[in-house]
Write a sequence for this structure.
């Protein structure tokens, strides 16, 4: 569940950033969100590197992974982990594929067949459309800091509260990109993801998603 | 007898108003009774009810999961977004409300949630089999434990990782996968996969709705209302991008009723036209009208009579009876022609013709009386119906009818233009050709097969056939499986029997297609035994070793030493029993309700198996006790019914023949006459089965009734012709035989024009049987008689 939220947030970031730059002096949260939504329509593609740190009570150490994320309009997405093992998944419309290089297993499936992937894609693609109306229905949004911008989203539904305490989005000092996302779970485990080298509207080969 | 008839004629000739008034009163009362008949449309009356399992099999088949349900398939066209199919399915299901629909299911719901996996881990010890123990044992080596923990660590990186971490701690070695594997036995629709808790086809283009309605399948009126209502829902709820097809028993019923209605219009037009032509050619008088009214009156009186004996008369009895009472018109025709030809002495003419008529009535009564020993309730009712009908026909033909028929100068019988006369010229050829034909027919008749599939007697329009094919192609053959019923006075007893059934089935081939609750809902007794097995396996030493192994190997992978304490607690702690309520709670309510039937007295647990001879053989083997177990199989059912039809037909023909021969012997007291009288019957039956066998047309329940008609009429033709040729009846006899044959062919042969298989089937067999019996009576009997006289 956390992962889904992370991805969804990441995909909304370009729109968020574009919205921020155009209304940097505005304190009106609603206005910011509506500008973000209109800016989202300008995002055709998006890619970045990520560094994921999982702080889990069942692990001795922080679980660190690195990888790359790609998004292309019309429901295409690729999440690949390159360290410590190679794995990931790609979604193209309602078709999806996942792979684990260690085991050599690949699996092609319909997105709807795997509940997690389905929930994930529903979230991601609606976030990619910057559907803040829906977002506000599901989360209370708090502004933790203006400079640099840091937001906290708290789930509303009891079901989601079982898995998620809150998540926080931190922007870079100049607010031109999201620097990190933190997802906190009820048992105090949390995941932090740093985003690096973000590129917007750069051509992406369709084969990435097949 | 003849003199009594003549005396009655003379007696009533002076009291005609009284005769007509009495007759009309009886007919009017019967007509009112007929209109108010309480008809029973249950097809079960066509099934054997004595010492055979067919009726039980049929009743059990009606309890099979999909036999009485409405199946709706929604097919999305290529260009709609992913969720629309599910959304529309939900919308349509929500719109299907009472009073037309009582229960509407689109899938098992969101069952396989994380809670489901957690529940599975808690109940697993109660489900474990000795085979599962072997699998677990293999997972406990150092290498396997390390491999499992490496896998867990990697999975923590994946999308599911964080959400499943608690489950990983409780079940690091993946024992739940063994339990999960048991769910495959709940796949009630072979090609189904679940998507958002909905039944979705493998290609994702189809969704399924299974609904129930309170209206009986035979309730045509309300069934039609339901279908119209459903069409209205489709128009308002379903967009053009989704096509919907629906199968329910009501559609078959309506299709059949509509086909029969259309058929009746065509048949009636043809029959009325034919009868009108016959009337113009042979009757042309008021008396002629009464001749054709006779069977109508007989039908009303016989139906009223049978309703006195049976509270609910089968609609099938009335339908078949109407066919059989075609015989009754023949008595009237013979009386009519005899009276018309009578010159000066009508009572004498009536006396002369009454003898063969009474002969005919007695032989027909004898033949139909045999039906009262049938194993089919409908045939027993039919026997009563026919006996009453024949008696009434006899009375109407001999008492009121002669009073309305007047003598007239008939066309002289011209030997040169007569068909019979032409054939008599070459009687040797007639006999040779007849013998040759009979030999060929007897040979082809050996190929005749009996079809016990009641569905083949239904009209299935192409539109419904296409839907059937689409459903089977898309979802697999889920409507025609065999069902094993494990029965008990309470749920636990039934589940214990169900456990035995499942164990037995797993010894057979192709277990992958079995649908059973046994693996996921064993009886409490079996659960206890499984739990004991589990506890015995987890000895203290083993527990200690595995916990140590998890700690050591987990440390090497990167887990804390306390990471898998929940696993140790789970193994040591109590397990939850699997109950029906628990299965309902986790989202398996639909499958549980489908496979468990509790009628308040007994509980039946159903297992669905392929309807194959191998599975049937598995249950028939001597090493399996079948007490408390019943198997309902379409194939077995068809075989039983086919056998019953074949047995009934053979028994009927043999017994009826014996009865007819006995009566003919008593009446004629002359072997030659008896044999000659049987020629039309023999010819009609052999020709009918020969053609059907040769053309590969199956013999069904309706053909049995046709065969009765052929026997009844054929004997009549034979008796009249033999009486005429040996005892000097006038030439009107031949005309009467010819006309009565034509009447039957026109009346019932016209059914061959029907689209409905049952009507068509009756028409075909009557046409062949009577079509052959008439020339046999008119041509072969005289040829044989002259030949034997010459000899």
């Amino acid at each position: 569940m956390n992962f889904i939220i992370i991805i969804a947030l990441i995909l909304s970031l370009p729109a968020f950033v574009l919205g921020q730059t155009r209304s940097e002096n505005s304190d009106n949260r609603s206005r910011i969100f509506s500008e973000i939504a209109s800016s989202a329509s300008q995002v055709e593609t998006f890619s970045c590197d990520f560094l994921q740190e999982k702080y889990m009570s069942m692990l001795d150490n922080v679980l660190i992974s690195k990888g790359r994320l790609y998004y292309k309009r019309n429901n295409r997405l690729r999440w690949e982990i390159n360290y410590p093992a190679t794995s990931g998944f790609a979604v193209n419309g309602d078709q999806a594929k996942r792979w684990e290089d260690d085991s050599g297993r690949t699996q092609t499936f319909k997105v709807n067949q795997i509940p997690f992937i389905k929930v994930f894609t529903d979230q991601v693609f609606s976030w990619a459309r910057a559907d803040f109306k829906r977002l506000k229905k599901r989360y209370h949004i708090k502004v933790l800091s203006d400079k640099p911008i840091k937001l906290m989203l708290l789930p509303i539904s009891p079901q989601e509260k079982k898995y998620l305490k809150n998540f926080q989005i931190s922007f870079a000092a100049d607010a031109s990109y999201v620097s990190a996302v933190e997802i906190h779970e009820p048992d105090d485990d949390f995941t932090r993801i740093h985003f690096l080298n973000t590129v917007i509207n750069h051509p992406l080969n369709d084969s990435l998603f097949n | 007898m003849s003199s009594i008839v003549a005396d009655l004629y003379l007696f009533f000739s002076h009291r005609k108003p009284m005769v007509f008034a009495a007759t009309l009163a009886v007919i009017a009362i019967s007509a009112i009774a007929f209109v108010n008949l309480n008809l029973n449309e249950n097809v079960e009356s066509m099934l054997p009810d004595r010492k055979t399992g067919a009726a039980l099999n049929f009743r059990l088949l009606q309890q099979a999961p999909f036999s009485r349900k409405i199946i709706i398939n929604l097919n999305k066209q290529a260009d709609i977004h992913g969720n629309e199919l599910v959304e529309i399915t939900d919308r349509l299901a929500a719109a299907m409300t009472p009073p037309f629909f009582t229960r509407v299911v689109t899938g098992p719901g969101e069952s396989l949630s994380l809670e489901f996996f957690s529940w599975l881990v808690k109940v697993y010890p109660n489900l474990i089999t000795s085979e599962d123990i072997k699998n677990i044992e293999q997972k406990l080596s150092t290498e396997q434990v390390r491999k499992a923990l490496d896998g867990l660590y990697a999975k923590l990186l994946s999308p599911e990782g964080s959400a499943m971490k608690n489950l990983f701690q409780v079940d690091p070695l993946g024992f739940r996968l063994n339990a999960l594997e048991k769910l495959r036995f709940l796949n009630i629709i072979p090609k189904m996969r679940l998507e958002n808790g909905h039944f979705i086809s493998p290609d994702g283009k189809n969704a399924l709705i299974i609904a129930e309605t309170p209206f009986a399948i035979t309730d045509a009126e309300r069934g039609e209302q339901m279908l119209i209502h459903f069409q209205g829902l489709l128009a308002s709820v379903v967009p053009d991008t989704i096509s919907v097809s629906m199968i329910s028993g009501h559609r078959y019923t309506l299709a059949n009723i509509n086909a029969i209605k259309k058929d009746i219009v065509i048949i009636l037009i043809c029959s009325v036209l034919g009868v009108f032509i016959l009337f113009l050619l042979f009757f042309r008088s008021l008396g002629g009208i009464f001749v054709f009214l006779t069977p109508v009156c007989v039908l009303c009186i016989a139906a009223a009579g049978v309703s006195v004996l049976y509270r609910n008369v089968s609609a099938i009895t009335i339908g078949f009876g109407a066919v059989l009472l075609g015989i009754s018109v023949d008595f009237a025709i013979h009386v009519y022609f005899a009276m018309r030809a009578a010159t000066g002495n009508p009572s004498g003419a009536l006396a002369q013709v009454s003898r063969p008529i009474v002969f005919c009535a007695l032989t027909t009564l004898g033949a139909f009386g045999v039906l009262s020993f049938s194993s089919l309730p409908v045939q027993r009712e039919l026997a009563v119906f026919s006996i009453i009908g024949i008696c009434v026909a006899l009375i109407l033909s001999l008492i009121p009818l002669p009073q309305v028929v007047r003598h007239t100068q008939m066309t002289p019988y011209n030997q040169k233009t007569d068909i019979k006369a032409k054939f008599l010229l070459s009687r040797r050829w007639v006999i040779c050709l007849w013998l040759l034909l009979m030999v060929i027919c007897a040979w082809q008749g050996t190929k005749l097969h009996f079809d016990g599939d009641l569905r083949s007697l239904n009209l299935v329009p192409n539109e419904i056939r296409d839907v059937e094919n689409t459903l089977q192609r898309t979802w697999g053959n889920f409507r025609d499986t065999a069902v094993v019923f494990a029965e008990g006075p309470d749920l636990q007893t039934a589940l214990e029997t169900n456990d035995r059934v499942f164990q037995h089935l797993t010894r057979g081939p192709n277990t992958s297609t079995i649908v059973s609750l046994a693996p996921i809902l064993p009886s409490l007794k079996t659960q206890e035994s499984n739990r004991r097995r589990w506890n015995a396996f987890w000895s203290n030493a083993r527990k200690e070793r595995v916990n140590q192994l998890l700690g050591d190997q987990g440390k090497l992978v990167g887990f804390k030493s306390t990471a898998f304490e929940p696993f140790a607690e789970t193994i040591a702690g109590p397990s939850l029993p699997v109950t029906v309520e628990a299965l309902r709670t986790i989202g398996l309510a639909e499958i549980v309700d489908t496979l468990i039937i509790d009628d308040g007295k007994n509980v039946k647990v159903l297992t669905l198996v392929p309807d194959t001879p191998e599975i049937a053989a598995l249950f028939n083997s001597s090493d399996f006790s079948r007490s408390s177990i019943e198997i309902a199989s379409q194939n077995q059912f068809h075989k039983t019914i086919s056998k019953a039809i074949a047995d009934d037909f053979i028994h009927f023909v043999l017994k009826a023949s014996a009865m007819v021969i006995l009566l003919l012997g008593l009446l004629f007291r002359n072997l030659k006459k008896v044999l000659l009288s049987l020629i039309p019957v023999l010819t009609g039956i052999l020709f009918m089965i020969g053609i059907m066998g040769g053309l590969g047309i199956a013999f069904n329940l309706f053909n049995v009734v046709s065969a009765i008609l052929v026997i009844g009429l054929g004997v009549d033709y034979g008796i009249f012709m033999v009486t005429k040729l040996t005892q000097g009846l006038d030439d009107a006899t031949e005309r009467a035989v010819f006309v009565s044959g034509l009447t039957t062919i026109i009346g019932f042969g016209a059914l061959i024009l029907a689209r409905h298989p049952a009507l068509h089937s009756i028409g075909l067999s009557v046409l062949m049987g009577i079509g052959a019996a008439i020339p046999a009576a008119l041509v072969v009997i005289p040829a044989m008689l002259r030949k034997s006289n010459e000899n």
Residues 412-419 of chain B have pLDDT under 50 and may be disordered. Residues 92 and 129 of chain B are 42 Å apart (CA to CA).
